[in-house]
Amino acid sequence: MKRVSYHTKKKYAGLIFVSPWALGFLLLTVFPMVFALYVSFTDWSIGGTPTYVGLANFKEILTNDREFKNALYVTVRYAVFAVPLTIGTAFTIAALLTTKIKAIGVFRTIYYMPAIVSGVAVAVVWKWMFDEYSGPINGFLGLIGVHGPSWLYDPNYVLPSYLVMAIWGAGGGMLTYLVGLKDIPRELYEAASIDGASFMQKVRMITMPLMTPILFYNLIMGIISAFRKFSDAIIVGGIDGQADFYMVYLFRKAFDFGDMGYATALAWILFIIIFTLTIIINVTKKYWVYEN
Amino acid sequence: MKKVILTYALFIFASFVLVGCKKETSSNTCDPMNLKFATWASTDELREFNEIIDRVNEMGKNDYHITVKNYVSSNYYTKLKLDVTGKKTPDLFWLSQEHIDYYANKEAIANLDSFFSNSQSLQKDKFYDNVLYSTEYEGSNFGVPFIANPVILYVNEDLFKENNLEVPTVDTDWTWDDIIDVATQLTSSGSEEEKTYGLAMSGFPPVEYFMWAGGGEYIDQDGNLLIDSEDSMKGLDILNKLMKSGSVPSYKYISSVGGPEYLFTIGRAAMFFGGIQDNFEQKVAEEGSGFTVSYAQVPINLDGTRSTFNWTASTVVKKGCVGNEKVYQALENLSNEFYNWKIASPLKGDIDKIVEVNPDKEKALPIIKEALTYARSTNYTVDFAEINHNVWYDVYQKMLRDPSFDYRKAVKEVANRFKK
Question: Which residues lie closer than 8 Å to A152 by C-beta, 6 or more apart?
Fold first, then answer.
């Protein structure tokens, strides 16, 4: 009987250990992606079998689909404002939460809470908050003599409403900044103080550079999240297509109109957009992200 | 090492083969002893539905057995589409009228012509023609209607009397000018949040109802889109006149307070277009509003005819069960049970059952009888959902929000998008 060497045994063991993941990855990620790629080149609605139509779906989307253009515009516009706002807010909250005050743990918990509350429940509450007649936001504005707007029924206020929601949820991203800030060696600040650096100089020369890896991560995650905005948008809504985010449109195409092939093509276009943006950010990384 | 990789590759390949070689998909098979019925019923309705299923199972205990698949009503059609796409179509399920053409076109549901012709109790001529028509696709019927719900006019009798206006009856033949005039007189002055409105309305009845009022059509029987015809435009003119009259609350206000039904229920709207199934009598009592609910027929169309929007839902059978006698027996037994449960039954001879099912509707019975004779639905098409989405967002909703909106131009633009 041939003896199995120690190294071969190790290889077998390794393969056996990774096989559940590898199999899951192949069956649940690679296979659906390949199938989805195929579906995007087909005319496929419910029932029946997909009919190959080549690039027709992509051509229609890119040249003739006004709702696609609107959805992309709404989503990009939201991302442009929401991503910097949430990063700035989360960073500021994290900076405040590094201070040594009493009950800091309570504050950290409170600010982190938006991350653990169900998105659907939050959306329902926000829909009520934005109500022109019975919502508490306009109720508060009324107390100080301001007639609040129709947040979700005035096209000019739909985006600001979503930005308010985004800022409220920024506390969820605060945790990574907090960890990053806590990780900056104190000695660097002490050395800078001895050299006579001002507060702003310390922020600019020490804090910001050392936080750029965290900012880089949050920038990418923020963009992905903004482009995949769905559950709160479908619940909160907004007049005149102002809340028709990309994913809302994709969902509508798939499940309201039953056009699975077209919707899958939309999904691939979204993937390409997010992938391209991620590549661009990665390329620019060397210019602004500090690497030790 | 090569052996290891080869073994691993074979293992993965075998997994794919096993997944692919799964037993014949359920969309193509039909087992009467294991029928699944998908429903959007929830809470009390679901409890009553389950009781019906138990009774029907008892009737055919040697021939079929039905189990209930309950989908959350708001996700019903999403879940259904996923099931159909995944070849797990329920054997029996409910479809609202606007979905019949789509599912029939995709060959997901069975042509039930043979069911009607072989049925002991449910031949086609027993149904109201317009109600059964809503289940028709390419000349065949694909569903058995279990409910007809035509729109009538609910009236707050007390507000009419307070304003010294004659309370409408079944004999009142209001034109659209008449009803707009009455609604204007019933609208009080004051702030948006305090005043009483002549008519509460917000996206219902659907826009096609107004097009019929002008003598037009949304889609004709040949599937041609007619939303921009001059007669349809005249119907939109009526809607615009109504919105300009100031007797209808603003769209954003009505959305904020929970819909026109609520405004009517609390006594702040004198009239409301509602389905006969809507149980306003009970809701008014629950709210403690204390006014008397009365009823009127919808106004006469510009061409002198009368039509009202009818919502019909039907029980359909998946394609794989077409012609299965045991399934058809289950469908017949189910339908007959539904007719003792929901109002109004879509069967012509069942009108008096309405009061048996809901005694609160006794006073409304003369109006309901009339309404069922002229109630109708749109001529739906396969792409109706997409057309209607565009009409709602680009025309109807904007008309409700802004009386100065150029709806004539907008409706032409929408029509041009879909005209082949």
Answer: A127, A130, A158, A161, A236, A237, A238, A239, A243
Of A18-22, A172-176, A219-223, B281-285, the range with the highest mean pLDDT is A219-223
Each residue's pLDDT tens digit, B292-318: 999 999 999 999 999 999 999 999 999
- Report whether the peptide linkage leading into residue B344 is cis, meaning its omega lies within 30 degrees of zero: yes
Half-sphere exposure of A272 (CA within 13 A, CB side): 9
Q: List Cβ neighbours of B158 (8 Å cut-off, separation of 6 or more).
A: B267, B291, B292
B256 chain-A contacts, CB cut-off 8 A = 131-134
Q: Any idea what DSSP says for residue A203?
A: I
**Across chain B, how many H-helices and E-strands are there?**
19, 11
Contact yes or no for A15 and B8 at CB 8 A: yes
B369: enclosing H helix or E strand? helix B365-374
Burial class (CB in 10 A: 0-12, 13-18, 19+), B91: buried
* B93, burial (CB in 10 Å: exposed 0-12, middle 13-18, buried 19+): buried
Structure tokens, A116: 């653990």
What separation in angstroms does the CA of A186 have from each of A181, A182, A190?
10, 9, 6
Nearest-Cα distance to chain A for B236, in Å, is 20
Rounded to whole angstroms, what are the CA distances from A125 to A133, A154, A165, A178? Answer: 15, 19, 11, 28
B78/A255 CB distance under 8 A: yes
**Which has the closest alpha carbon to B322: B99, B121, B91, B102?**
B91
Pairing state between β B293-296 and B197-200: unpaired
Q: How far apart are CA B264 and CA B75, in angstroms?
A: 28
Nearest to B12 among A26, A132, A257 (CB): A26
Return the structure tokens found at B330.
């289950």
The string of pLDDT tens digits covering residues A123-149 is 999 999 999 888 999 999 999 999 899
Residue B215: DSSP 8-state? T
- C-alpha–C-alpha distance, residues A136 and A142, integer Å: 9
Instruction: Answer yes or no: is pLDDT of B8 > 80.
Output: no
Is the predicted ipTM greater than 0.90, yes or no?
no
Is A252 in contact with B389 (Cβ distance < 8 A)?
yes
Give the amino acid at B207: V
C-alpha pair distances (Å), A167 with each of A175, A245, B224: 15, 18, 48
DSSP assignment, residue B348? G
Cα gap B52→B66, rounded to integer Å: 11
pLDDT value for B24: 43
Assigned token pair, B341: 């449960």
Please count the other Cβ atoms lying within 10 Å of the Cβ belonging to residue A254: 23
User: In A, which residues are within 8 Å of B391 by CB distance?
Assistant: none
* Distance of residue B108 Cα from the nearest chain A Cα, in angstroms: 6
CB atoms near residue B234 (< 10 Å):
18
C-alpha angle A228-A234-A240 in degrees, rounded to nearest 5: 105
Phi-psi sector, B304: left (phi>0), alpha (psi -120 to 50), beta: left
